[in-house]
C-alpha cells in the first residue's frame, strides 16, 4: 500500500472514476470532480491509499485562516468496503496529521456520525478529542 498526496497533474479519468465509485460507499450526494477541486483556488490536500494504481481509500483536508488561527477540516474519509480494518483509514489520517504539522496548522477539525464506531475509535486513537459543540448545516444546493 502506498499513501500519497494527490497533485493536479496526478488526476486522470481512472482516478476520477475510482473516487466517484468509492465515494458512493460514503454518500449518495452529488460529487465534485477531483479536477474541479484543484481548480477552485482553495488550499486542499487529497490523500489516497493505492495498491497497484487501485485507490483503496481517500481523505481530504481543506485548510483555511480565520481570526482564531490556521485550521484544517477533514472531510470525505472513505475506505473501500473490501479493504476496511486493514489500517487504510489510519494511514490516511496519519498522513493528514503529518501534513498539518508540516504546514503549522493550529488545529484539525472533523466530524463523524455517532454510529461510525470504528472511525470514532481511530480518531480518538490519533489524538482527536470530542469538542463540546454542535454542527449545524444549511443545505444550499440539494
- Provide the β-strand percentage band: 25-35%
Average residue-wise pLDDT: 91
CATH superfamily: Gcn5-related N-acetyltransferase (GNAT)
CATH topology: Aminopeptidase
Write the H/E string, N to C.
EHHEEEHEH
Oligomer: single chain
CATH class: Alpha Beta
Strand order of the largest sheet: 1-2-3-4-5
Helix segment count?
Answer: 4
Tell me the distance between the termini: 36 Å
Could you estimate the helical fraction of the residues in percent?
Answer: 25-40%
Domain N-acetyltransferase: 1-142
GO molecular function: N-acetyltransferase activity
Protein name: GNAT family N-acetyltransferase
Pfam families: Acetyltransf_1
Summary?
The protein is an alpha+beta fold and 142 residues long. 28% of the residues lie in helices and 29% in strands. The relative contact order is 0.15.
Topology of this protein?
Layout: E1 2-5, H1 13-23, H2 34-38, E2 43-51, E3 54-66, E4 69-79, H3 88-102, E5 107-110, H4 117-125
Parallel strand pairs: 4-5
Antiparallel strand pairs: 1-2, 2-3, 3-4
InterPro entries: Acyl_CoA_acyltransferase, GNAT_dom, NSI-like
Keywords: Acyltransferase, Transferase
Organism: Abyssalbus ytuae
Describe this structure in words.
GO terms for molecular function: N-acetyltransferase activity. It holds the Pfam family Acetyltransf_1. It comes from Abyssalbus ytuae. By secondary structure, the protein is α+β, with helices and mostly antiparallel strands. It has helices at residues 13-23, 34-38, 88-102, 117-125; strands spanning 2-5, 43-51, 54-66, 69-79, 107-110. It has one domain (2-125): Gcn5-related N-acetyltransferase (GNAT) (Aminopeptidase, 3-Layer(aba) Sandwich), CATH 3.40.630. The protein is built from 4 helices and 5 strands. The chain has a 5-stranded mixed sheet, sandwiched between helices. It is globular and about 40 Å long. The N and C termini lie far apart (36 Å). The model has no long low-confidence stretch (mean pLDDT 91).
Amino acid at each position: 500500500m502506498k499513501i500519497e498526496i494527490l497533485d493536479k497533474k496526478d488526476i486522470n479519468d481512472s482516478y476520477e472514476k475510482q473516487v466517484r465509485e468509492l465515494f458512493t460507499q460514503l454518500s449518495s450526494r452529488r460529487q465534485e470532480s477531483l479536477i474541479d477541486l484543484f481548480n477552485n483556488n482553495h488550499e486542499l490536500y487529497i490523500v489516497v491509499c493505492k495498491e497497484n494504481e487501485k485507490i483503496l481509500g481517500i481523505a481530504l483536508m481543506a485548510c483555511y485562516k480565520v481570526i482564531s488561527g490556521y485550521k484544517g477540516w477533514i472531510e470525505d474519509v472513505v475506505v473501500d468496503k473490501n479493504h476496511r480494518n486493514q489500517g487504510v483509514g489510519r494511514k490516511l489520517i496519519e498522513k493528514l496529521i503529518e501534513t498539518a504539522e508540516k504546514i503549522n496548522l493550529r488545529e484539525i477539525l472533523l466530524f463523524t456520525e455517532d454510529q461510525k464506531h470504528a472511525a470514532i475509535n481511530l480518531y480518538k486513537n490519533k489524538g482527536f478529542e470530542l469538542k463540546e459543540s454542535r454542527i449545524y448545516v444549511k443545505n444550499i444546493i440539494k
